[in-house]
Design brief:
This protein has 12 helices and 8 strands. With about 400 residues, it is an alpha+beta fold. It has 3 domains: about 110 residues, Acyl-CoA dehydrogenase/oxidase, N-terminal domain (Butyryl-Coa Dehydrogenase, subunit A, domain 1, Orthogonal Bundle); about 110 residues, Butyryl-CoA Dehydrogenase, subunit A, domain 2; about 110 residues.
């Protein structure tokens, strides 16, 4: 038995003992307890550097663990943003002190993280953000509002971007900070969506003082820092979804069609075949990205391809589910396999982490090398732009 086979076998045995029977969305105490056990067993931060609390192994061991965990529900969703976006950003551009302070507690589930980019007037055009940070003596004073922030109610820390220089073009005057969400100047409010759940939050930041050593990257270099986070986010969303059961999947919907005697309907068969092909394309693309990561090749902007494929697959699966299940597709409680909730959440996949239109622009520009979309505001000082909520103020 090779070392990898033995690693996979041990991981599977550990998961069978510790993960079986746990709910997908447990209470926070249960999730933290499991995350601590996962870390102590050596299965959190498998490829992360040992000096910061990781295991220091290769992508081959990470892949072996993912294979062992296939079909097992790991109750670690609340830690996903920290593990997939914030932690990798700190490892990429954080200071030595930041890495030593934050990475190990993040990996062990002792501290939860969120990402605070979008604002009421700066969604797809994040660079139009108006949360401001002003240097006051020995601290930056941050004020503003963020929105669509996942896990903010549970989070201890967040990566926040704020405008530190309004007299330069909008992409140039932004800085990224680590912010303590327990600060009395931070107010978090849940936003309930059409699934009936509060998957997102809005955050109000009122004169929160942040020490200079909590700047991530360079002052006024926050756009580059944000792009780093967004690249990690899109890879995380796409590759993470490849390991997650999808209620509106080919397997589930084919079974539902068979149950209803619809497999003789040529239109239904065509839709199911199309859904199967989309799923295979998505899974194979993510498998390729995983193999490249294993070989030391980073996906970069191609993570946007995975995110776009996932969004379109999710929306198409929702359409097929509606055709096959009819009224049962919107039946909560006794409905089939969480389909109603999945259908309500599906449109959000085309928005969160960047809209499908933004993904296509990134793919065209950075992957295919096509000419960039014209942007007349790239050289105009932000203070002179009438964007987002500034446009509303100008119209008064």
């Amino acid at each position: 038995m090779t070392d990898l086979e033995e690693y996979r076998r041990r991981a599977r045995a550990w998961l069978d003992e510790h993960a079986r029977g746990l709910p997908r969305e447990p209470d926070l105490a249960t999730a933290k307890t499991f995350m601590a056990k996962l870390y102590d067993a050596g299965y959190s931060g498998i490829t992360w550097p040992v000096e910061y609390g990781g295991q220091g192994l290769s992508a081959a061991e990470e892949r072996a663990f993912q294979e062992a965990a296939r079909g097992v529900t790991l109750p670690i969703g609340v830690f996903g943003i920290g593990l997939g976006m914030c932690g990798p950003t700190l490892l990429s551009i954080g200071t030595e002190e930041q890495k030593r302070r934050y990475i190990r507690p993040l990996l062990r589930g002792e501290e939860i993280w969120c990402q605070m980019f979008s604002e009421p007037g700066a969604g797809s055009d994040v660079a139009s953000l108006q949360t401001r940070a002003v240097l006051d003596g020995d601290a930056w004073v941050v004020s503003g509002q963020k929105v669509w922030t996942s896990v903010a109610r549970q989070a201890d820390f967040g990566l926040v971007i704020a405008r530190t220089d309004p007299d330069v073009p909008k992409h140039s005057g932004i800085t990224m900070f680590v912010i303590d969400l327990h600060d009395p100047g931070v107010t978090v409010r849940p936003l309930r969506d059409m699934t009936g759940e509060a998957h997102f939050n809005e955050i109000f930041i009122d004169d929160v003082r942040i020490a200079p050593d909590q700047v991530v990257g360079e002052v006024n270099g926050g756009w580059s820092a944000a792009v780093t986070t967004l690249l990690h986010e899109r890879v995380s969303i796409g590759m993470g979804a490849a390991r997650t059961e999808r209620p509106a999947s080919y397997a589930n919907l084919a079974a539902a069609a068979r149950k209803r005697g619809l497999l003789d309907d040529a239109a239904v068969r065509d839709q199911l075949v199309d859904l199967y092909l989309r799923e295979r394309a998505f899974d194979l693309f993510n498998a390729r990205l995983s193999q490249e990561v294993k070989a030391g090749i980073q996906p970069g902007a191609r993570g946007s391809v995975a995110k776009l494929l996932l969004a379109e697959l999710t929306l198409y699966g929702a359409d097929v589910a509606g055709e096959i299940l009819g009224p049962d597709a919107v039946a909560y409680g006794d409905g089939e396999g969480g389909i109603a909730s999945a259908l309500s959440f599906a449109p959000g996949m085309a928005l969160g982490g960047g809209t499908n239109e933004i993904m296509r622009n990134i793919i065209g520009d950075r992957v295919l090398g096509l000419p960039r979309e014209p942007q007349v505001d790239r050289t105009v000082p932000f203070r002179e732009l009438k964007v987002g909520t500034q446009a509303k103020e100008a119209g008064k």
